[in-house]
Amino acid sequence: MTGDQGPGPAPARPSEATWRGAAPPPLPRIGPLGWVLVVLRGTGIVTVLLVGVTLILPMRAVERLFVGSRRPLTGPWVQAVCRLSLLIIALRWRCVGRPMQGPGAVVANHSSWLDIFALNAAMPVFFVSKAEVAGWPGINILTAVTNTHFVTRDPRLARAQAAEFGARTRAGHRLLFFPEGTSSDGRRVLPFKPTLFQAFLDPALPANISLQPVTVRYRSPPGCDARFYGWWSDMELGPHLLAVLAQPRQGEVTVILHPRVAVSGHTRKSLAAAAEAAVRAGLQIPPTASS
To answer: The domain containing residue 172 runs over which residues?
Structure first.
């Protein structure tokens, strides 16, 4: 989808299998006030991210020196950067539930580029992404400093990738997966792909490993389409980002941390079904408590 309010053509979304669904709603036109907000909010977020990236490098060096691969400093630091970014956007954020204890990973629904900020604000996590993302200009810098876990869909590399996944899990890293395999309009949960969950059954992983299902729920700004924050199909990133930054009154994002699901005793299909059911229920049932 191409917006009509940008200063020029935005880069197209990289080629991948995407969910189509209904046609995306037209993006609101940006007026004078909207452009002022784009400049102010955009400048604020870029400044925060630049400072965050600059300071995370020496913090990483200290961590490597004293605690090896663990991230006691940079994990909370990334949380703070993402919470501050959401505050600058004026998108209200809240978290329901608590991060699980012990070794494990996180699985969540995927609706928008905003998920990166919302989920990182909830707990220290390391996103799992396809290897191609490492070559995207600009994005590759962020993925490098945030220690994104890249995977390649090649059966010949499956064992090596499983070993790396196991090593990071034992080091206490919370790897975050999007089992839908694509993003949606934020109004639904797409079927989870069971093949992804095979990695959690590898015998090299800790015996007591668990998964924490997480639901990300968006409420659109007053008067906007309910799918306003969703980024899917062939929508271009640039116009959508500008439309979000230009909103005078923002909506809300809620991150729901569900009880953990023990991997032991599950097959990949039953594990995928249990995680999907929890995430789906969180999108349908209003949360009752917040943290």
So the answer is: 32-284
Residue 277 lies in a domain: yes
255: helix, strand or coil: strand
5 located within any domain: no
**Residue 116's CATH number:** 3.40.1130
- Residue (of 190, 23, 202, 26) closest to 107 by Cα position: 190
pLDDT, residue 152, reads 67
- What's the pTM value of the predicted model, to 2 decimals? 0.86
Does a structural domain hold residue 96?
A: yes
Q: How far from each other are the two terminal CA atoms of the chain, in whole angstroms?
A: 36
Q: Does 157 map to a domain?
A: yes
Alpha carbon distance 197, 270 (integer Å): 9
> Number of structural domains, the chain?
1
Three-state DSSP class for residue 252: strand
Residue count of the chain, please give it: 291
The DSSP line for 36-52 is HHHHHHHHHHHHHHHHH
Q: What is the DSSP string of 173-196?
A: --EEE-TTSS---SSS-PPP-HHH
pLDDT digits (tens, 9 = 90+) for 131-175: 766 666 555 666 666 677 777 666 665 667 677 777 778 777 888
Q: Compute how many other C-beta atoms are within 10 angstroms of the C-beta atom of residue 135.
A: 10
Give pLDDT tens digits for 101-134.
888 999 999 999 999 899 999 998 888 877 766 6
Residue 115: both structure tokens together: 């998920």
Contacts of residue 198, Cβ cutoff 8 Å, sequence gap at least 6? 268
| pLDDT at 62 exceeding the cut of 80 | yes
